[in-house]
Amino acid sequence: MKRKYTKAAATASIVLAILAASPVCRAGDYTIAYQLLDKIDGTAAYKLNVAIPQTLLEYYIEKSHRLTSEKDFAKFVTPYALKPIADNLRELYAKDEDFVNGALMIVHQIPYQETTPVKYPLETIADNKGDCDLFALTAASIIKAGELNVVLLHYKEEKHMNIGVHLAEAPKKARENIYSVTHNNITYYIAECTGGNWTYGWRIGECPSNLKEAEAQVITLEDSEKMSPGQISASFIPLEPSAIALEISPPVTFQENTITFRGQLTPAKPDENVTIYLGASGSPWTILGTAITQQDGRFEYVWKAEAAGIYAVRASWIGDDSYRGAVSPTKNALIISYALGAVIAAVVAVAVITPLAVFALRRSKQEMREPETEETPTLS
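^ that's the sequence the OP posted. Answer follows.
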């Protein structure tokens, strides 16, 4: 009996361990600030604050980074995710040429370091380091988000990459002869993305001397990312912190049942989109759905758990012009198949009944061993 009870207890412990198998992550933002001049040769400086929600960063970290040909570089251009940067640059720079030079100021501030494999722009911004191709992908994402026609320029012999941008007229602020490439009868002015001096770095139309006669492969961006699960936050003023709380009810249930995710956005803002992310062991995070906050900032999302397994759940808000985006701590949900449920029920039953049976048996044996006592007569 003791062996069976021990086995039952061990099984119950395993079930409890499963619930704790996925680590709870105190997720947060990756923040960085970039300096920008009011104009390409100006003196007034602005600080652009950029914040990347951790869940969005992990989304790109877990995406495929495979390159089968040079054309696959286009898949790493992510304009939607970086659109808040482009929107802020447009507020500062009305002219397209100035806007492009503003984007170059940003990538010129990222320290250069040889990096493999290729990474998505959010990874480069979060790492705060990269090389020519990562800078080109980042700049191209910002400029394309600003609704300009941009291409990647790959110099195979020189092992280098920069970008070309189409402007309605030739750049006027280049400090030397203007260089460009023509593709499908469209002129793209060269924009060099490397260089550590952001206040006096390369401007659109300027070209490094070793590339002036080099042959570049033009990579168009029809295959760039059209949509992403979220965006970075960007603002010229310091952004206030925000937070999301998330609870799962119930945390353990059987498949085909429903689970409710409830949470609270702070500050309490109504009609905000909160993205619910779902992760399973060994699989990338995926978007489960979107919840809308109520007047008090609360939100709710109901999910029908169709497949058994252990799931990690997060809620994310992209932020706005006043508040940084936020990601909730990870919560875990255990969805039990009916077959496993029957086994667990049997184990629990054994765990409960066995001690009672042992106790009853001992009690019975004890009563059998107790001698019967004769009744002592009383004297009258």
